[in-house]
Amino acid sequence: MSHVAARRTGRVRELLSLACVMARFWLTVFPLVRATLRELERDARAIPDPALRAHALETLRGEGLSAMGAALVATTVSRPDPALVRLLVSLQVAWDYIDTLAEQPAVDPLANGVQLHRALLDAIAPAPPRADYYLLHAAHDDGGYLLALVGRCRAACALLPAFAHVAQAAGAELARAEIQYANHAPAAQREAALRRWAARQPARADASWFELAAAASSSLGVLAILAQAADPATDATAVERVRAAYVPWVDALTALLDSLVDRPADARAGLASWMEHYPSDPAAGARLEAIARRAVGDVRALPHGGRHAVIVVGMIAMHLSQPTAWLAGARPATHAVMRATDSATMPLLLALLRAWRRVRARSGDEGADPSAAAAQAVNPTGQLTPVPPRPQ
């Protein structure tokens, strides 16, 4: 087969993988996601403390689409198990809620974030939860909301046939993720904490300290590992393959693109930005291009690699569909990432997601029910458009 013919065949396969993922998501996964999010919103409305209640509802409405994106990962396995969908949604909601709480003022922001983060570790741990997650937080009375999220995750884990094979790898990546709360520490302490953490990680000549820290702040690798628990054929070798494909490069790309598109807002708010660690915009663009090429190539080599590639390309398109990705400072990096992705699905996903953002903006949907907001994203044929993952 000639190079041209092989490339054409590969692109047709990519489009078929996209169609497969979207059909599985909207027909099987989405109804479960919507039901789970409604249950979680009901629980959030019952939180006694008004500040915690507001944070929980804000997370569900503002970040609920990331929970639906997390559930999209369920399409990478042979069949989207309902227990897996509930696990992915509940864990992502807990992740986003804890991140929201960790952004609030605290005497020791890093310690507060780490204490809250214990809920995520308990969510997939074999031992029953015993931590007081709010020990260092200003508010405490959530009426059992966070503990119930942990319980939902644990109940789902118990129903997955291969969970025993994924628990150790997923737990290790969740433990590493507690470094993300260093970004909420005072500026004078932030970089030193991140550097100390990176120095304790296995040495990698191909990644900088801040790229490793950025990767640890993304949930996508953890979700991909957990998804393997739904396949009875999963063994330790299969888990390590998925882990190596997503960690650190897919995770790093997720966090770095998030930083790229949030850069103007972060600068206005005086918040930390991963992108500021690169010496120049051209250097950042070149590095993002290399990371994107590695990330997409690694997941394509997995079993069901076409489906994994849809998840990663969808994540990239979700970020690049934001207007801030096309500002003068970000545009070279955006073009570089698109070149590296080299996917037939990218133009389609980018166009659909831009249209979806316009629909959302016109309807004033930013604070609406996240599942209803997703359902309003329609393409010219009237069919639902995909909502790729944007895990934190």
Give your account of this protein's structure.
The chain has 392 residues and is an all-alpha fold. The chain has one domain (27-375): Farnesyl Diphosphate Synthase. 67% of the residues lie in helices and 0% in strands. The chain has helices at 3-45, 50-62, 64-72, 82-102, 109-123, 145-159, 163-176, 187-199, 209-216, 220-227, 236-246, 249-269, 281-300, 305-320, 331-341, 345-362, 370-375. The N and C termini lie far apart (41 Å).
Number of strands: 0
CATH class designation: Mainly Alpha
Shape: globular
Give the helices and strands as they follow along the chain: HHHHHHHHHHHHHHHHH
Instruction: Indicate the radius of gyration in whole angstroms.
Output: 20 Å
Separate helix tally: 17
Please tell me the total number of domains.
Answer: 1
Q: On the 0-100 scale, what is the average pLDDT? A: 90
Q: Give the DSSP E fraction (strand runs of 2 or more residues).
A: under 5%
Largest sheet: none
Level of helix content? Answer: 55-70%
List keywords for this structure.
globular, mainly alpha, single chain, Farnesyl Diphosphate Synthase, disordered C terminus, 67% helix, 392 residues
